[in-house]
Amino acid sequence: MARRWIVDSAAGEESIEADEVDITAAGVLVFYRVATRRESERTLIASFAPAHWRRCRLASES
């Protein structure tokens, strides 16, 4: 189930709807959409380099 995420970045707040969120070992914030029938298949929606994001939170927690 997709959730709405708020990312605080250098450009301001951005809203992204994604099923999964991950932070890579290099600090890259990555958002994915998951195929409902095959949970092992993910589609990249957006990513933010470590220098371009400050905080990520669920919109429902705002």
Describe the structure.
The structure is a single chain. This protein is an all-beta fold. The protein has one domain. The strands form two sheets. The protein has a three-stranded antiparallel sheet with strand order 2-1-6, with no helix packed on it. The chain has a three-stranded antiparallel sheet with strand order 3-4-5, with no helix packed on it. β3 and β4 form a beta hairpin. It is globular and about 35 Å long. The model has no long low-confidence stretch (mean pLDDT 89).
Defining traits:
mainly beta; three-stranded antiparallel beta sheet; 60% strand; 62 residues; single chain
Layout of strands and helices, then pairs:
Elements: E1 3-9, E2 12-18, E3 20-23, E4 29-34, E5 42-48, E6 53-58
Antiparallel strand pairs: 1-2, 1-6, 3-4, 4-5
Give the overall silhouette: globular
Query: Alpha-carbon distance between the termini?
Result: 19 Å
Number of domains in the coordinates?
A: 1
Instruction: Round the mean pLDDT to the nearest integer and report it.
Output: 89
Low-pLDDT runs:
none
Largest sheet: 3 strands, antiparallel
**What order do the strands of the largest sheet run in, or round the barrel if closed?**
2-1-6
Structural class by secondary-structure content: mainly beta
Supply Rg. Answer: 12 Å
Strand content: over 45%
